[in-house]
Design goal:
Largest sheet: 5 strands, parallel
CATH topology of the largest domain: Rossmann fold
Low-confidence stretches: none
Structural class: alpha/beta
CATH class of the largest domain: Alpha Beta
Order of helices and strands: EHEHEHEHEHEEEEHEHHEE
Distance between the termini: 35 Å
CATH architecture of the largest domain: 3-Layer(aba) Sandwich
Shape: elongated
Length: about 230
Amino acid sequence: MLKKSKYTLLFVEDESMIRRIAISLLRPYFIEIYEASDGVEALEIYNEKRPDLIITDIEMPNMDGLTLCKRIRKEDRSTPILITTAYTSTEYLLEAISLNLVRYLVKPMQEEELFESLSVCFEQIETNKPTIINLTKEYKYDTFNHTLIYKDEIVTITNSQHKLISILITNHGRIVSYKEIEHYVWYDKAMSSDALRSLIRDVRKLIGKESIENISKCGYRIHLYG
């Protein structure tokens, strides 16, 4: 359940009715909400108020949401940004990832999905933990949207591969035991040694053998880039 925060929000949406409804829904969770009807107005408010979090639509007059994000990201790589759009597009998703946005939400926004996204934003603010992780020089992993990216392309991988990468990244400062991997990846199914080795081998083929280290009789540890 989302709890009231001590943060400020900039909400950017050109349709006044959608803006009013959304702000009414979000008001209990922020100490202050600033609103803007286009990117130009939003950039002025951002420069003056420096909100803790931004939610912006893409399609707007005067300055669209992606242009707004690019302008903000020139000097600010850390403020969490959620971007909303009426259209699903791989091109938009890749651009959102390149701009280090937290999530790309499709309208009409579902309350549960919005609150889940805000929880991630709050955690990111509190821990300064990024959601886009550099696995290698060329591979990135979006931990929130569970997406593997190679250069500017989304790589299709299995659910087990996603789970393995996710648990190793979440615990990247330590060795993740075989038992932890078994429980997280296979859940209520038994894991064979061959199945684990096969999974590790397939992920290494993608992101490089040196990225995942095997600690004999203990487990695996991931080495992140940079």
